[in-house]
Write a structure and sequence with these properties.
- The mean pLDDT is 89.
- By secondary structure, the protein is mostly beta strands.
- It is globular.
- Strands 7-8-9-10-11-12-13-14 form an 8-stranded antiparallel β-barrel. Strands 1-2-3-4-5-6 form a 6-stranded antiparallel beta sheet, with helices on one face.
- It contains 1 helix and 14 strands, in the order E-E-E-E-E-E-H-E-E-E-E-E-E-E-E.
Length: 171
């Protein structure tokens, strides 16, 4: 369960139902989160340190931010330490228009992508989330540090958005 079996399009690794990150300041982080309308939660375990954290949705932070902050504190790190840092990737403002649209999967998860003042925003659950480009078709949600990747189909056309562990098809 805690052995990575797949590498996700965002670069993270996935076991059987669990997000696995080896060598996070000397420990292996294993976590899982989820959300449905109005409810979200996240669980994170630092295996070798015997530290576990669970959070339900809070107004000012996502559950994943809270569990990582709690594990960081227990490990003697700064609360705000990110799981991964991404350098900014240069993208021409006009190129951002290609990503604009509505993305949805059959589970009912959806996101709308829009450009506001040369910045790409992902709107999910009614919240506009500012992004920052960090690689080809790869963006980070600035509030959480979570990566999202736009996927391309045959011929290179934009076909989907990979967010969390879900693929949302472009409509």
């Amino acid at each position: 369960v805690t052995t990575p079996h797949a590498t996700l399009p965002t670069g993270r690794q996935y076991g059987y139902g669990l997000d696995v990150q080896r060598d996070y300041h000397g420990v292996t982080l294993v976590g899982h989160g989820g959300a449905i309308k109005g409810v979200s939660a996240h669980m994170l375990v630092a295996l070798e340190a015997g530290i576990s954290a669970v959070a339900l949705r809070l107004q000012s932070a996502t559950p994943e931010q809270v569990t990582l902050g709690a594990v960081n504190t227990a490990l003697g790190l700064e609360w705000e330490e990110r799981r991964q840092e991404y350098p900014t990737w240069p993208v021409a403002p006009a190129a951002l228009e290609e990503y604009v649209g509505t993305y949805r999967n059959n589970e009912g998860t959806s996101a709308t992508v829009q450009v506001v003042e040369d910045t790409l925003f992902l709107v999910s659950g009614g919240l506009p989330l500012r992004t920052r480009p960090v690689g080809p078709d790869l963006f980070v949600l600035e509030a959480t540090g979570s990566p999202v990747r736009f996927l391309r189909g045959a011929g290179g056309a934009l076909s989907a958005l990979f967010m969390g562990v879900r693929v949302l098809n472009k409509r």
